[in-house]
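the two lines:
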Amino acid sequence: MKNMTPTEYRHFLLDRPRTGKLATVRSDGRPHVVPVWFDMDGETIVFTTWHQTVKAANMRRDPRVCMCVDDDTPPFDFVQIEGTAELINDAEARAHWARQIAGRYMGSDLAETYGKRNSVEGELIVRVTPTHILAQKAIAD
Amino acid sequence: MKNMTPTEYRHFLLDRPRTGKLATVRSDGRPHVVPVWFDMDGETIVFTTWHQTVKAANMRRDPRVCMCVDDDTPPFDFVQIEGTAELINDAEARAHWARQIAGRYMGSDLAETYGKRNSVEGELIVRVTPTHILAQKAIAD
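prediction for all of em together
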């Protein structure tokens, strides 16, 4: 097991459209984790969420989040990002990021279609500022 | 998007050795999520953990966990299991499950080697009894 360099960390997150598994905490203290499509804006993690999801409610109550991205084939790599989430309701940012993120995960041909679907009124942009990053490669070695 | 049938849910978790992303809550209320190698014993999720990890400390304090397993290629499938974790310190169970789980993720040739590595004194077996399951296929459709 080795730590990724900052360059390896960026490549790991961006070269392939892996999903992030976003963990938040419910009002009764139970953990919650769901996959999200994300992109990066510099060091900031960006994704969209419908305003009425469990994760949106959880982040509104407590903006501390933890996101895990892994490669689940030997020798197994993983990144864990702890950070603070900001929820943004802005039509322009929504249109930009929804299209950008959809392009990453569905391909450029479908970016328009899925970008529109994820940029309707009620979708929020979430920006996570990392506070702590753990990035390890070849865990099984 | 459709719900998986119970049979599809089992196949999704067991046919390929996907990692589970296990979410727990830290003492200060922050969420924590890491990948785990798991197997199933009937409906129970089983994995091992070193007794001094963050996740072990979190589960000892609060046994409520949430685990996410996803297929991050279109059309995107995911399973989310909420449950209650029990930590077990038992040499026989440890030897059995460490080998069994290592075989799933590293292949039968390496099951022995990795099984031994994960069944030393200090490793615990974690058994998660599901309390709520969300299993959805073709999320992007």
